[in-house]
Amino acid sequence: MTLTGFWDTAKHAFGVKRLFWRIFIAFWLASLLVMIATGFVLVNKFSSDEYNKRFYNDVIIQAERIVWRYEQNLATPIRQQRKLKNWISNKNNRDGHLIPMLIKDESGNTIYHYRLNKIKSEERTEQRVSGPSSRIYLVQMSKPQAPRIYKQVLYRFQSLQFGFIFIASALVSALLSWSIILPLNYLGTFSRRYANHQEVVPLPRKLLARGDELGDLALDIDFMVNKTHAAASAQQQLLHDVSHELRAPLARLQVSAALIEQKSPDSQHVKQIHSDCLRIDQLIQQILDYSKLEQSSPSAENCDINALCQQAIDNMAVNYPSIPVSFTSVDKVEIPGYPEALLQAFDNIIGNACKYSANGELVEVSTSSREHSVVVMVRDHGPGVDEEEMSKLLQPFYRAGNKMHTSGFGLGLSIAVKAIDKHKGELRISSPDDGGLCVEIILPRELI
Amino acid sequence: MENDKYKILLVDDDVTLCALLSEFLQEDGFTVETLNSGDVAVARLLESNEFDTVVLDIMMPGMSGLDVLRTVRAKQQVPILMLTGRGDDIDRIVGLEMGADDYLAKPCNPRELSARIRAIIRRTQQGNSNHIVHAQLHGIVLDSGARSALVNNVALPLTGAEFNALSLLMERAGQTISKQDMTQEVLNRPLEAYDRAMDVHVSRIRQKLAAADIHDVIKSVRGVGYQMLTEPQLQKEKG
After folding, report:
1. At which of A269, A290, A311 does a domain end?
2. Angle in degrees, 0-180, between the axes of helices B15-27 and A213-263, rounded to the nearest 10
3. Domain count of chain B?
4. In which residue ranges of chain A is pLDDT below 50?
5. For position A282, what pLDDT does the model report?
């Protein structure tokens, strides 16, 4: 495979347009967003509540201590204040700082004040504490505000969780996406295989019994393939039976014509009947050959490709005595296969080459061996085929009739292609620059 | 007509076709008897050997043509011409291996059938002439008079076509004989496309010779035909 080919395949399998990635990314993003939003709200609320609680707690503990000391000493407020502050910053420096607050006694005298001036009255809040003498004091403080640093700490903590969420949701999304894509891919392969090889492989029970929409789809596809297969088989069978049944009357027709011929030997009409009988017989034969290839064959056997080519060339030497056919071969090449089908393919392809060659024009047949395949090449020097006609060549009943009108039914190449398909091989047709047509039959060495 | 003395048995399940063919062959000078099923044909053939040639349809319901061929060949050497479906290679090869003398694809032009019957009869008649040739090679002794082969004084059973093929090969030992020539000389008819008759006859001869411990004396020349090796040639091949 070339690099671009590989890239195309990769793009096809892993491209952004693939449903897998779409489902994966959509689901992942959605789950991430939801998780982040909820996480944010929850963390925010909890952390501020907790902060508030701790803040009030700290303030009240500090205020209670101040009040307690205040009542014990009963010093003048101003002198007392400095002492209190020193005492608190010495002793109660759990957080290493004094909390800004204002404490007033019942009569409204300020007994303690620390840095509350700058804070506006609407940002203040009040709490009441009671001293040992059960007098009530009013404590003013700023409303609790979760500080920025605190938030950042929270955020950092959250980002570790975020990592987990990130990975977990990716895993879950991939799993979900995969569970949808896997059966779809399987169904795709299944139907493609049927289209290419007309093989009906039963779908896995697990897939059919899923019960969801994919299971339904699998059931429908299974149903469709079986129906189509039955219809195609019935058609094949009909074609086969009709062709077969046509032979008996054809045989009688020929004898009747011959009887007339005995009585009037020079009749042109009888000659016409004979030649048409022959033509019908050939068509029936080709249809039967074609339908025979559709049927399953017995097990493969070793086929000597050179011998089969030689046999086909011998056959053609009888049919086209004026066309020389050369044969070059490598050493013995044997592949597993169905000799009858292969011979038919070689016959038809070499026959075509002879048919489209003028008298004396050489047809070259050669076999060559590659690592994984055997190639049979048939090259003629006839008129060749137009580029646009090339693809139509393989259709049943198509004849490259623009260039010439020759006998035949256009089934020959279709039969050859079918036979080659049966060997998982490949047929390539090309127009060499110096005219004519080159047909390559590539047969794999392994029949898998 | 000269064919008058020859009696043909026509076996085919298609009654109308039998009637038409019989009319045609009678017009051509043969005496024709028709039968429409395999078992009746076997009974008729085993009770008498008055027929010069049997034309036998392979595709018959009940007892098939191949079954008839097998049963009759075990007891009789009457020349048998098979009618096979076109493309039924297996039937042809099996039929020839079972000892049919030749085959013809059906549907066929009756003139071709008539010509084939005449070819078979002429071939059979040759043997009855007094043209006696003794050929000897590789320990095989051919007696054209008795139309038999002897290997180490043991008779080697050969059908008519096999005998003709072997005697042709021995007469021209050392030369390559093309399939066209062999078909013409042995079967009295031209070679056709997809014609395996000569290959089957030669392969049968090889088998029979191998059974008598004579190996590799007939060589296939790819794309041309067959060759009976002379003693020096055989030594060279083996050496």
Report:
1. A290
2. 30
3. 2
4. 1, 402-405
5. 83
